[in-house]
Amino acid sequence: MNAVLRRLAASGGLEPEEPWIRLSHPGELWERWQSRYGRDSAIKLMEWNNSIPDLGGVPFGAPVEGAPGRYMDGYRYRERAGRLDPASLAGFYVQDEAAALVGRGAAELPGRLVVETCAAPGGKTAHLAVSDALTVSMDRSVERMMQWKANSRRLGWESCMPVIADGSAIPLREADKVIVDAPCTGTGVFRRRNDARWGWSDAHLSECVETQSMLLDASSALVRPGGWLVYSVCSLEPEESFEQAARFERRHEGFRRGCFPAPEVLVRDGMLCIFPPEHRVDGHFAVCWERIA
Ligand SMILES: C[S@@+](CC[C@H](N)C(=O)[O-])C[C@H]1O[C@@H](n2cnc3c(N)ncnc32)[C@H](O)[C@@H]1O
Hints:
alpha/beta, about 20% strand, about 290 residues, Rossmann fold
């Protein structure tokens, strides 16, 4: 931020018409996105981040009324008008359609013994719980796992076992499928987290990238030959998505990239890549690898 402000000060001060000021975003993000997407798309992204998020989710119990998903069978968009009757949400997990696509895609890949290393509060667990897998749902945060537990009780996740542990020391030997829904800068979900944009910094990005690499390396050791590793983030930043995936592939030749199960229009080079202003859902990234050696 300081560098941007210094440059602006030197050039005669803040221009009120600067898009990042008008649309209330940090200057660093504007510069980053403008150089990657071009001016118009970067503005569209900031406008998207300032829009009111949709309310929707997946009914895991009785059918729920609502408009159908843009991409996913069974997804339902609800009206935001008035107060929601809690009874109408029984069995319903509220989440963005993109998050639901990641959860369902991860659940569709084969595997009877599944480990999620970053499970709380359970957005992906909700999908694993209705598959025929036995799932170990791990997270290092007690507070967030308490939310997982509340969701588990509400939705009856009988085949999912909660564990509080750090992803660097997974207390298991082998699994058919390991899912790393990693901590990230969250630039794909700023529409839902109004303050998160102000937490952006290069230092935070580097910290996230390092944690993600560590979690990927530790998780990969658990995947049995023929099993699957899934990595996902709700970030648009290449360092946390494509580049993280490419670095993993260079370090782990025994893993071959598969095609993430999701609608074709959202998949590039086998990876789920969502750009919110274009696809009209939150920005998520997901990639899967099969262990071949
Ligand atoms: C993106 S969130 C997971 C969201 C969850 N999968 C869902 O769909 O609801 C990332 C999670 O990683 C957890 N986390 C961060 N660092 C971790 C680590 N070293 N080991 C295990 N969990 C970690 C955080 O507590 C947080 O709950």
